[in-house]
Amino acid sequence: MYIYQYENWPKFTWDEEEIQVILGKVRHLQGKIFGQMSVLGFSIKEETLLSTLTLDVLKSSEIEGEKLNYEQVRSSIAKKLGLDYNDSIYPSRDVEGVVEMMLDATQKYGESLDEERLFNWHAALFPTGRSGMYKIDTACYRSGDMQIVSGPMGMETIHYQAPPPKNVKKEMDVFLDWFNNDSKLDLTVKAAVAHFWFIIIHPFDDGNGRIARAISDLLLAKSENSSFRFYSLSNQILLERKVYYKTLKEVQHSEGDITEWIQWFLHCLYRALQSTEQTIGKVLRKAKFWDLHQETVLNSRQRLMLNKLLDGFEGKLKSSKWAKIAKCSQDTALRDIKDLMEKGILKQEVSGGRSTNYELEDF
To answer: Distance (Å, rounded) from C-alpha 20 to C-alpha 23?
Structure first.
């Protein structure tokens, strides 16, 4: 039997003592990172917000197997938040829709969540009324049965059977009433419960996972009383995707005890916060570099490549890569590199080998 087929549905229970241990760790780390962020300058906070929201949109879609264009997502978010970014990039309708949903959830966390708002999110996710090749019902609850299946045609494995369509409206009314009116539950724990509950109902033809994660983000923003996002839960869920689905699969057969799910959710959130600590370190390092070199004369190609190195350049930096990325000749790339070496910004790697690689000097 599935959890929604038991008589006590949807009365969830959990081990409060076990949950409080990890919840205390989450709260402590949240406070610590908020303190670190408070001393950063306005421009660095803007960059952190833009980077975090971009990551959240990209990774939430990637969990569902959909890869969005990084530049389009970043540009769309920047424009909607009134931040400076490349005006020559025009995001696709799909990108704009996902961004609109995520920003509505995180920037308007104080507003109630009702049927119309959920339908607007769903319509934004599927602007053409199609999911891939298939036409789906948009901006309304599903009218057909919903199964989560995998495997080749004719040999499918059913992982989950959602409540029948005739029950969806009633189930969602109960969910939304709880969401908007239950004020006793800790909001971080509520984010975990809401995510699970929504996934169990699976009210839409498609997009349920992305909307569940947006609902979690809304409640997490509400728990922090801030629209400023400095960590990405979706990125961490993607890294732990197998355990995410395994935990959902196990708890969906529970008689109502969802301790295992809440524990996993809070531990996942804790690891997302730990990752953010490292990200803030990179942001501070980048800010320190440009503070040191605010008077240094650099051309646009050098600034471009230095930012890439500071953001975590993948692989070895060679003059040929410089030329390709900066769209210049090999000779120009070498002149740029030698100029930076003379200024004490770049150095030659000591690893040796036939090819010459370059890296940032310590600063």
So the answer is: 5
